[in-house]
Structure formats: C-alpha cells, structure tokens
Amino acid sequence: MGYSGARGGLEAILAAEDLVRRSRDHAPAPWAETGQITARFRLAVDRVMGEAGLYDEQTAAHAFRQAEGDTLEAAHLVRAHRSALPRLARSEPVNPDEMVVLRRIVPAHRTPEGPQLLGRTSDYTGRLLERLDGPPAATNGNGDGAAHGLETGESQNGNGRLADGNGATRGLGTGDSQRRPRRFSELLREMDLLVDHRPADPTAPRPEPFDVTRRPARPPAPRSAVLASMARAETGALVGLWYRSILGPDGNVHEVTLGEVRHGRLPLRVKHPHTGAPVTVGHFRATETEAIEDLDGADEDRGRFDLGYGLCFGHNERKAIAMANLDIACRRFGRDTPLEQLLLLTVDGLDSGGFLEHLKLPHYVTFRSMVDRKLAVRGTGERPRATDPIGKDCE
Questions:
Q1: What is the pLDDT of residues 313-344, one digit of tens each?
Q2: How far is Cα 1 from Cα 292, in angstroms, rounded to an integer?
Q3: Is 84 in contact with 101 (CB distance < 8 Å)?
Q4: Cβ(103)–Cβ(181) under 8 Å?
Q5: Which of 247, 227, 176, 205 is closest to 330 using CA atoms?
Q6: Which residues contact 250 (CB under 8 A, 6 or more apart)?
Q7: For 196, what's the count of Cα atoms within 13 Å in the CB-facing half-sphere?
Q8: How far apart are CA 75 and CA 67, in angstroms?
Q9: Predicted structure pTM score
Q10: Closest Cα partner for 237 from 350, 105, 152, 371?
Q11: What ranges does the record give for the region Disordered, renumbered to this chain (predicted)?
Q12: Distances (CA, A) of 21 to 82, 92, 183, 321, 369
C-alpha cells in the first residue's frame, strides 16, 4: 500500500486545528468544568478509562472534553498520555471478593444470599426523553448529597434502604454480608454444578499474567491475554462480536444465563519500597460479571455448567457481560473458529479506528497506479482473467 505526503498543506492543517479549538473552547455556552464531566457524564468517562487502560477520572474527563465527546478519540488521547508516564510500581494482585459493592444483581436466582442491590441504574426505567432547560429540583430534601451518596455507597433509595428480589425494601447494613455478599457461583460449585477449571494444586505457582501493554497478543494466547484484550476493547465492537457469536453464521449455539453482575470498589495495593509489605494506596471502581452457560457438546460434561468471567474499569456493564460470555465462547470454540483471532486483533478501538481514519489521508498515488493498471488492461484489448478459486488445480 502506497502513501504520499501532502505538500503545501501545513497552513491548512494548522487552520483546521485552530478552528477546532476556537469552536470548542470559545463556544457560546458555559464552560464544561472537569467536575461537571465526571459527575454528569460518568458512564462516558468510565468507558474512556476502560478503553484507554488508565484509571484516572480527571484525565479521562479532560480527554472527553478535548475530543468533543468522541469516546474513541478520548481513549486515544489518554492512551497516548499514558505511554509517556513512568511506571513507578506494579500493583499487587487483588481478590475480587474484596469488592465493596455499589450495585449487585443476580438474574439467575430470585433470592440469592445477600441483597439484590439495584444501585444506580436505569434498566427498569422507560426510555422517555426528558427535555430539561435547567437542573431539576432536589427530591427528598437531599439534593446533590444524596446522588453522591448513591455513587459512594453511603445511601440507597435516598433513605439508606436496599431493594430485595421482590421489590420490597429493607435496612442497609454495613457488614460483609451486605457489601461483600457471597457469590452465586459458590452455591453452584457447592452443588457440583460447575466445571472446575482451577488448578489441581492451589499452592502451585501460577503463570505471570500476559501484559498486553508491553507486547501484542497473538493466537494462540493464554486466557489472561484474551481477558486483558477484551478489558481494553472498544465497547461497541465487543458487544457486536458477542452478538455475532450467538446469532451469526458460526453455528455455535449458546445457552447463556447471566449469573451475577457487580459494580463496586476494589483496593489498589503496591509493595512498600522499604518493608516489602503490601500497602493500600487507593481504590478504583470496576464492573464484574459471571456468566453461566449450558454445556451440550458431545465431548463436554453435560451434567454441569461452565462459568465465564469479565472485569473492566469503571461502570460498564455491557462490556463486562460481553466479556464473560465471550470468555466461555473462546474456551469452547475459540481454537476451532476465528473467535480468538477476532478478539485479539479486531476489537481494540485504537487499532480499528486508526486504520479507518488513515483512509482519509492522501492516497492519490496508490489510486493513480490502480487507474493506470485499468487503462493498460483496456489498451491491450484483453479481457481480464478471473482469479482461479482457491484449491482448484490449474489446467
């Protein structure tokens, strides 16, 4: 593929950049403060952090504003910024069971152990457009403090109550049973209904997780590489690939049930430089999902279910759910289908979006060579010969 540099266009490029800045930064509208973006566009900020692979709400908000709301461009800005940052330490592995949940639903069980904590969601709200000319009036006399409490887990339903599986409410406790409920998968494991993929010797050293930020993952790749690639994937691409895997032409039948969805806070720990002991230096929000799939293959254990896992930065349930389902699909069909290759090579938004964007660069030299070839073929008077089908012997 040939490219050509555009000469004489530097002034036009600088003028275009200046037009973007003047139209964005000096628009006839109030300036969007960083706090406004993180508070009112939290899902977009979380999506940018997840696709960029850097958990920093302030940085993601700056990028979101600079990209004029384009989450893919914002993720590109954040990832470029991250590449220039020094690596001061490596975080210690964290047990997801330490998550302090802000939201937890178990669609597979009506009355699971622990609460059905709806948290901050519009899943059960009608999609009716609200045309607001200004901020709505505060409800229950709590104002912005109540909304902040919902996100931090200090309050639910505005009055410190939880919703159970029947829609009733009960008091919000502060113990581990409320904020660190037992996993639904543990119940299935106790009933011997899950295929156990855990190592036979739990004390044996486990392989180092694949770091997709250091080197690209290529098939065949370990599961950690596939999960890390999906965690940084463009959300729409991942959801589209998941939808294709269950309804597309591959012929892979999936009987998937969503086991559990959680959104909460996890601790961030690093080793102390002098003592070597793990020290908690902060917390980050994450979304975690476990998906359950019925096994019906000829060489599969039809008396048990398989469990898929997904975890990503921020509050992004679509991505986490698609991750968990594709985790199972990759384990069942990934080696025999292009699924693993698609997950590793096509769902990264910067790769796919960057290749698409490059089409807008000058390609007239390439196209001119194509035109010359067409004219040459027509000038000879010969009819172009069709390419022989792959695998057919030439006579």
A1: 999 999 999 999 999 989 888 677 788 999 99
A2: 45
A3: no
A4: no
A5: 227
A6: 244, 333, 337, 339
A7: 11
A8: 9
A9: 0.85
A10: 350
A11: 130-181, 194-223
A12: 23, 41, 49, 37, 37
